[in-house]
Amino acid sequence: MAVLTIAKSIAQAIAEEMERDPSVVVLGEEVAAAGGTYGATSGLLDRFGEARVKDTPISEGIIVGAAVGAAMNGLRPVAEIMGINFAFLAMDMIVNHAAKVHSMFGGQFRCPLVVRTTSGGGRQLGATHSQTVEHLFAHFPGLKVVCPSTPADAKGLLKAAIRTDDPVMFVEQATMYSLRGEVPDDKDFLIPIGKSDVKRRGRHVTVVAYSNMVEISLKAATELAKDGIECEVIDLRSLRPLDLDPVFESFKQTNRAVVVEESWPTYGVGAEVATRLYEECFDYVDAPIQRVAQKEVPLPYAANLERAALPQVADVVRAVKAVL
Amino acid sequence: MDKAEMLELYRQMVLIRLFEEKCEELYQKGKIGGFMHLYIGQEATGVGAVAARQPQDSLITGYRDHGIALAAGMSARTAMAEMLGRVTGCAKGKGGSMHLADINLKFWGGHAIVGAQIALAAGLAWADQFRQTAGCTLCFFGDGATNISYFHEALNLAAVWKLPVVFICENNKYGMWTPVEKVSAVTEIRRKASAYAIPSDSADGMDLLDVRAKTAAALAHCRAGNGPYFLEVHTYRYRGARTARRKRSASGRPRTRSASSRRCCWIPASPRPRSTASTTKSRRSWPTPCSSPRPRPSRTTVKSGPTSTWRIEWQS
Questions:
Q1: In terms of residue numbers, what domain contains B192?
Q2: Interface predicted TM-score (ipTM) of this complex, two decimals
């Protein structure tokens, strides 16, 4: 087992799948010669050649458009959209086509497509480059939305995403690419999409998170443990399909929950998870479920303002104490 | 082209016309739901272009898809069943009028977001190029779709990647109900292709054989590895942008073109096999192809489901 960054684990996952299946191709802005804006496609061009690793124009609509057409016609494209904010320019292709062609044409077409993109704030990029909006895509039946939180999860989930016959939005977090962790070498190391993962056991409060909010929640849990408060931290790993069984199971023991998301709370993941908890576990609720989320403003540039708007460890600690 | 082939193409055009007239009737009766966009008037464009394809070539179009579907070889029964929302339809009743498709015919749909099929066509062609199938893609769209970003993004990518795709603009002079000159800075649509260094030609969409010949030439260009080709086909739809359930006039459009137009009158220039044009005295009716009588007694009875039966009869 090697210790890799998330960027390296992603590059490894794609390379292994390209090795295994000649129909896997990579396209996007700067993915070939430059090896990807975040280095996640580094080395692929040299290894697999320019027929399979293709730089595109800065033209999100056609990046995903061509990828959907190619996926329908037998390829398995891994398309990179440099940032999820630009995925809005390809929103029509993702939600009106990738998500629809299988069902709408009566099952005739498949769309084995992965759209990799980067989400999240915290890098002083201003309001249009810092949004955390993967949950918007999770709204649409027909799409899978995957958000890994560790290098091992990134590799196993991405390999599974490339192998699935459905379109997958694979949403990475820009501040996490250098996060290091152990990654299995096994070329068939797969993590099934749609399985939540308990990242820390605890009996007092259930903390539900995904992506970089898992790390923040784990830090909060460590801090709270000093006061004798044991949090169970559950990583959703995919927003659609949404696997809440481990959350329900945990909640029936703890009777208290906090949902942590980087995006704004309105119509968000916290709203969904809390509602489902109320629906499924109403008799077990001992305290109103808390949401930790971004302040409802376009994210400002100044570092102090940005920090104030994004969820921090202290916010999770405070929310956990509020439900106790 | 031999007589049998001519008759077959003529049969396809008549089939589209009669199929859609029946669609109109069923739409007014409320049996067909949703939006419905008729191809009537444009039959020679679709039939002519599709006639030029090889079996390995793909077809894709927008929501005005009945004509391409039938020309591609979809049975009227399957198409009508889809219109009626039956499980026996080509998309099991999940697609409807705007989403006809048949993967076995390499007809990739009916796509109802304007211009999206142009982007998808680039992808279909890319897959064929990558897999070296020798297949090309015929991508149909209206003049209205040439102002949307997909058009420009797809033409650019197709040119840069030298994709084997023939972009066929069915210029029927109106985007929805708005005349092309009101919304497009360039009204000779083929000139837009020159911005992406894509060679182009134009065809008379009322002339089956002209469309067929120009499409064949375009396909030959693509198949030789020269990249995409653009064909502007001048045509005219006789019905509204989409069928209205209530009574309305012919959607505010003139039934004929202005006298200053290259084509002074569209209705008389009804689609027809042009090979006999010189011998056809009247353009006001469907001419008799060659010297044979209309194909009869061809009668197709289509059972679209347990409660609906209708038939097409060739009128002589």
A1: 3-313
A2: 0.96
